Amino acid sequence: MLAKEEEFIARFAARASHASQVQSRVKKIAKIERIEIPAEQRSIKFEFAEPPRSGDDVVRIEALGKTWPRPDGGEKSVFGGITGTIRRQEKIAVVGVNGAGKSTFLKVLAGQAEPTAGSLTLGANVFPGYFSQHAMDILDPRKTVLDTVQDAMPQAHLGTLRNLCAAFLFQGDDIYKKIDCLSGGEKSRVVLATMLVQPINLLILDEPTNHLDIQSRETLLAALQNFSGTVVLVSHDRHFLRCLVNRVFEIDHGQMRIYDGHYEYYLEKSGREHQAA
Ligand SMILES: Nc1ncnc2c1ncn2[C@@H]1O[C@H](COP(=O)(O)OP(=O)(O)OP(=O)(O)O)[C@@H](O)[C@H]1O
Ligand SMILES: [Mg+2]
Questions:
Q1: Whose CA is nearest to atom 26 of ligand 1?
Q2: Which domains does the chain have, with CATH numbers?
Q3: What stretch of H or E contains 61?
């Protein structure tokens, strides 16, 4: 936007006919606070290897239901009767209010929890990877960032590992930091970096952007946009959803509604445009 405005000003600055427009634009952009992104943090791109291609049907879901045991010995039904197919290269957002069952659905999808009704079948050559809200706990706290990334890519050269770390914003000596000294956001970045270099073609991501700053969110967004596999994710970040997803699964009162379109389409069709994220 700034570049465009500046170009307009440069082009028309000398023309009396545009004087007032130029004036107002000069004033407008003077008011905008500019943030300088340090040069070394700018647009570090990492070329992820293509994951193996899965079959066209990635997951078949039939009459799927899940209940959790309640402390009083009863059962709490989270959802039921979910039927549908997840196809290759779909980027699906799972949405719903707090407690609707989004994380439960992802857990069942990732094989981390057993369905209590119906079935869920993975297609041919599907290699799932799961990022939970507690994904950071799988890291070994005694290892450094570099060691952790190296474990995920044992064949890679140091230069490649450094690039991967840099793409996830670990520069210079940061790569020698121990996991147990990292912040939540830094740990998330390590987990995501190591996941994205695996031969995974179904990414199941539960609120991956939660602890991430803007820059890391953009890095992850770019990686997911270029990802040739299938993505199922929960996120409350509307920008992320707008830029990424092409299908929306909404869980509402134990039922799932499927919207075959982008996030905007879902907002419009569901009438949730004016509700908070
Ligand atoms: N392991 C569990 N044992 C028992 N009940 C659970 C368990 N996990 C979730 N629940 C219950 O299942 C329901 C759905 O929870 P879930 O975490 O799937 O919701 P969510 O949509 O992910 O919510 P949020 O947006 O807050 O993350 C809640 O009532 C929750 O208390
Ligand atoms: Mg959740």
A1: 98
A2: 2-34 (no CATH), 57-270 (3.40.50.300)
A3: strand 57-69
